[in-house]
Structure formats: C-alpha cells, structure tokens
Write a structure and sequence with these properties.
Helix content is 20%, strand content 36%. The chain is of the alpha/beta class.
Length: 631
C-alpha cells in the first residue's frame, strides 16, 4: 500500500511538484491548468457530477444516455471499474451499463422512463480497502406535453401547429412526434420539432374521433375532430347577378374565435354552379371572387354543416323606406341615425324647424363620421337624448347660435358628461365658413346660394365624399366670410345652381381668381341632374352606388312658411357615409331632371332607399322610381 504519491501539473511552462498532503489542482473550463488522475489502486470514487444539465433532466419515454464526471477522495478525476444503478422513488432498482475512463463516463440504454425523481448510484467493483464506495446524483424525468393550435373538422382540410414542451414549459427541439390519425381514417404522420419545439401538419379527417400525438411511445396530447355545428361565417360584400362580385368572409368557431388555416366550402348548387373550397388566413378570413349568373342562395359548409349563406341579389335592389310613418324631424333624425350608425364618437345637433344653419354640415358629418340629430330650440326630445346615449357619443357639435339651439339644451348635454362644441356665426354665411374651417383648407370648394337649400344639400353629399366644403353666397355678392375662406388654399370653385340663383356677373368675378365650373339648370331638379352627372363623369362603368330619395321641400317657402322637411339633409349624411348620392324629389311627380339622370346613369346605381314619410314622397312615386331603376 502506498501512503503518498506525487502529481505533476504544468502551468505557464513551470513544473510544480506537490505532495499528497497539499490541496490538489482541479481542471476548470477555459483554464490552461490540467490535472491527471491518481493511481487507480488508491482511488475511491467519492463525487459524481453530471456533465450538462440535460444529463440530469430527462424526458419521459425516451431512451437516454447520461454523461457524468467522477472524482476521487482527492477531488481528482476517477478511473476504475464501476457499476451503475438507477433507483426510482418507489425503491425499484435497475442496473445499466457504464463505460468510460479518466473521469468521463456514460450510463447508456436507460429504458423509457416514467416521469418522476430517480437516484443514479455508481459504485466501485473493487478497491484496495475491500469496501464498496459509491457516489450518487439525482435525475429528474419530466413528462412531455403536446399542445395544438387549429381545428380539425370533419371533411375539411386543416393546418395544425403542434408544440412539444416539457412539463416545465420548455420547448423540446429536434424531437420525433407521431400523429396517430387512424381513429379518424386519416393514417399516421411522423414529424420532427423545430428549434422552438413546433411542427406543422395538414389533415382531412373523414370520420369523427380523436387524433393523438405520441412522443417516446407515450400519448402526450390529442385533438378531437368536430363538426361545423356552432361555427359561423360572417360576410362583407354582396353577390350581384351578372356582376363581378368580391366577398370577404370570416369563419369563427362556436367560441367566437377565428378559425385559421381551415377549409370552407362554398356550395353553389342553389345557383346551378359547382362547389369551391377556400382556406382561411391567419385572421380567419377568406375571399370569394365570382360572377353569379342566376338568382338564388349559396351556402357555406364547414365540417359538413351549413354555417352561413348569401343570396345572389338582382342588379338593382329597392330597399325598405326609412321613416314611412314618421312625421316630425327629430324622430326622423333618430331613424336615419339608427340605420347608418351603431355607435358614434361624434354627433351633429341642429334645430329641427330651420335648415339653413346645417345645410352645409354634411361634409362635416362625413369627416367626423357623425350622424345629424335634430332638436327643438329650447328642449331636447327624449328620443334624441336616448339615441345619443345609445350611440355612446362623447362629443356634440351644435350647429347655430343660442337662438337656434338654446343654452338649456347645451347645459343638459354637458350635464350628461358630454363635450359640447358650438359652431355658429352671425348669419348663415358665417356659419358655413366656420364649418369649412373645421374641415381644413381645400383646393376645391362648392359654392351655393344662401337661400338655395336644395342645391346646397344635394351638392354637399358629393363635396363630402371628396373632402370639400360647401360655402354660401348672395346671388350677386360674395360675403366677406366666404371670400376670406376662399382666399386661402382654394383654386377651383363649383357653383351649385343656375343663373337665377348665382348671377353670371358673380361667376365672371370669381373667374378672375379661380377655375370656375357651374353645375346648374333651370330648376333644382335639373341642377341636381347636372351635379350628379358631373360626379359620375369619370367613374368606371363597374362602379356602383346607392341612391337616396327624399323630399325637396327643404325651405320655408316650400311649405308655405311651415316647418321644412329635413329628410333630405338627414338622408344626405347617410348617403355621404355610404359613398352614395342624394336626389330630392317632389312628393308625387317624377320630373324630367330626376328621370333623365336615372334613365341614362342607372348602370351606376345598385340600390335605392326612400327617406321620408308617405306624404313627403308618395308611394306611387316610389313605385315609379323603382320602375325606372329596375334592370
């Protein structure tokens, strides 16, 4: 038996001799110092260290090799004959082969283990003391879990993403996963996870059942095949007979969440067509482009179930009338707002008995996406206040001074926690200029007679869609407020109305500084014909627009000093929102200006809506309008 020994270490070229009684030098990564093993006959295994963290943390079901480092009683690398045992938490012990030398050993062939805690024990087969010396290390075996993103639906091709992770949530990269789809008659697939632990596969199950994910011979996750019950398809757009149609659909599951990378079938048998399949995008949407040649219904199928449908519409559709039995302006304003808005941050509020303050407010309505509501001067109708609350408005823009909408109404609104902004001026010209300022500078402006409400309201719709203001003028003199606004960025002016409302002399004066175009005729109906035709002059024949019809009785002189019908103003705000057009009509006669435009330009018009009660626009006239537009 040797009682001492000598080890040799080399550091920076110097040879150092140390006796056994001195502290040994230990090899560290990155250090130039190296340590030799001691004499095997005198070594006792005393310390076990796992080579990496992955050697002490295994995954259930995998056949593993564990790499270790062994040290002797002198903290030097051990070399000798060893036996390896693995003890489970229930006391079960299994022995495994161990091989290696010079302190580096591998325990190989660990059988697929269940999740839990184990103790790895190595012991010397022989030492000079006749005793068995052992060293232990703890091994944790984690379970693996596969989670799936996507939906498997009967008879629908779906893209599924699977992520494999350990029970601590750490992704497992480069691991094999088996997709067992035999229960749904779709066979098996073998996959390998990427660096983030994920892998993708496509599957079209033809039977109801469950698809299982296996790793290491164990089932680590599953995904059930579902039918389409509870799913829905919501569409945006329309299918129009003999017209190229583009529809966007969104597929959502029964929980309301979008279903991504999933197949939807469009069943066109109802219009004598064949079926087409579409795959949803990452937001659950899909696009349909088609030209239906028959009227009828098409259905969306998902998982064998009908989850939505669309009806192929005629080229022209007459919508139900708005406000057929409403005979006051505030109630009509509520009806129009409810038709066009489900919520509105901003609302325009104006007096109900005179339209001059608000007749140029349609461009502001468009800019603010604000419905126009109407009130009595000194009291706010309950229905109007209720609609303001229903729309969840925050800002109220009052058009006109305190003589138009009283301070009592203003204070009531402020008491509701609303932010109130009043837009007013000394007269209708100033008010129009103040509205224009809110729109901002514009290179083009529309100019109407201050007493030509029909011209101003109809023109306001097209001005709104182009982002232009409508300003007011006297017949032959340009008011100072209007002149001030026009002297800014404006270079082009459209005059609304014939020479009877805006004189040729004023037109000539304006032409000295601006490019001027008159859109007018011998009456309000020929004027609106000119305005509409100008707007559609450069439009594509494939473009289609909704038209709104309303009473032309918009000024006091139209109703013998009574309350004008505000339906045209209200319909104008809705037309501007929907990028349509407004046409004012008498209550029972289809006059030439309106008839001419509809006959020659109806290819642009996909649908029409009458706004107003049955006295303002008679039912016989509504029938005539539908007849002219039908095709």
């Amino acid at each position: 038996m040797r009682f001492s020994r000598v080890t040799r270490s080399f550091t920076a070229g110097l040879m150092v001799f140390s006796m056994v009684s001195l502290s040994p030098m230990i090899a560290l990564a990155g250090n130039t110092t190296t340590t030799t093993t001691s004499d095997a006959n005198s070594q006792l295994v005393t310390n076990l260290v796992f080579s990496t963290s992955s050697d002490s943390t295994l995954i259930a079901g995998e056949v593993s090799t564990v790499n270790i480092r062994l040290y002797d009683q002198f903290n030097l690398l051990f070399s000798g004959n060893l036996t390896a045992d693995l003890t489970a938490s229930d006391g079960t012990v299994k022995s495994y082969p161990i091989s290696g030398s010079n302190g580096s050993y591998s325990v190989t062939g660990l059988n697929p283990l269940s999740a839990g805690c184990y103790t790895l024990t190595v012991r010397e087969n022989f030492n000079q003391y006749g005793k068995v010396y052992t060293s232990e290390g703890a091994i944790t075996v984690l379970s693996s879990v596969a989670t799936a993103q996507g939906n498997l639906v009967l008879n629908s091709s779906s893209l599924i993403k699977v992520k494999l992770a350990d029970s601590n949530g750490n992704p497992l990269a480069g691991k094999a996963i088996t997709v067992d789809a035999s229960a749904v008659d779709a066979g098996n697939q073998s996959l390998t996870t990427l660096s983030d632990g994920t892998c993708n596969f496509s599957l079209t199950p033809t039977e109801m059942g469950t698809v299982y994910f296996q790793h290491g011979g164990q089932v680590v996750g599953s995904l059930a095949v579902a039918g389409g019950a509870g799913a829905t398809v919501k569409t945006f757009g329309s299918l129009v007979l003999n017209a190229p149609s583009l529809v966007t659909g969104t597929l959502r599951g029964s929980d309301g969440n979008p279903l991504t990378k999933t197949t939807v079938t469009l069943d066109e048998s109802g219009i004598a067509g064949s079926s087409q399949t579409y795959t949803t995008l990452n937001d659950g949407t899909f696009n349909i482009s088609m030209t239906p040649t028959r009227l009828g219904q098409v259905n969306f199928l998902y998982g064998g179930d009908v989850v939505g449908s669309m009806t192929v519409q005629p080229t022209y559709v007459a919508n139900p009338r708005i406000g057929a039995n409403i005979f006051d302006n505030p109630s009509m304003s509520v009806a129009v707002a409810q038709k066009g808005w489900t919520s509105a941050q901003n609302i325009i509020l104006t007096r109900q008995d005179v339209l001059v303050d608000a007749m140029t407010a349609i461009p502001l309505s468009k800019k603010l996406d604000a419905p126009i509501l109407m009130t009595e001067t000194n009291s706010l109708p309950d229905a109007v206040l209720s609609e303001i609350k229903s729309l969840k408005a925050a800002n109220i823009y009052i058009i006109g001074g305190a003589g138009a909408v009283g301070t009592g109404v203003e204070n009531l609104l402020k008491g509701q926690g609303l932010n109130v902004i009043r837009i007013d001026g000394t007269d209708r010209y100033t008010t129009a200029a103040e509205i224009a300022k809110l729109l901002g500078p514009a290179q083009t402006a529309y100019l109407a007679c201050g007493y030509g409400e029909p011209d101003a309201i109809v023109g306001s719709v097209f001005a709104a869609e182009q982002g232009y203001p409508v300003l007011l003028t006297d017949s032959s003199n340009l008011p100072a407020e209007t002149k001030t606004y026009l002297s800014g960025a404006t270079t082009k002016i459209f005059i609304l109305g014939g020479t009877g409302v805006v004189t040729p002399a004023l037109e000539a004066t304006l032409a000295n500084n601006y490019s001027v175009t008159r859109l007018g005729g011998s009456d309000r109906y020929y004027t609106e014909q000119a305005v509409c035709e100008n707007y559609f002059e450069n439009k594509s024949a494939s473009d289609e627009y909704p038209v709104f019809f309303a009473s032309s009785a918009v000024s006091p002189k139209d109703v013998s000093g009574g309350t004008p019908d505000a339906s045209a103003l209200l319909a104008g705000s809705l037309a501007a929102k929907e990028n349509g057009l407004l046409m004012v009509v008498p209550n029972d006669t289809l006059l030439d200006g309106v008839n001419n435009f509809l006959l020659y330009d109806k290819a642009y018009i996909s649908q029409s809506t009458v706004v107003g009660n049955v006295n303002a626009v008679k039912e016989d006239l509504e029938t005539q309008l539908k007849s002219v537009l039908s095709r």
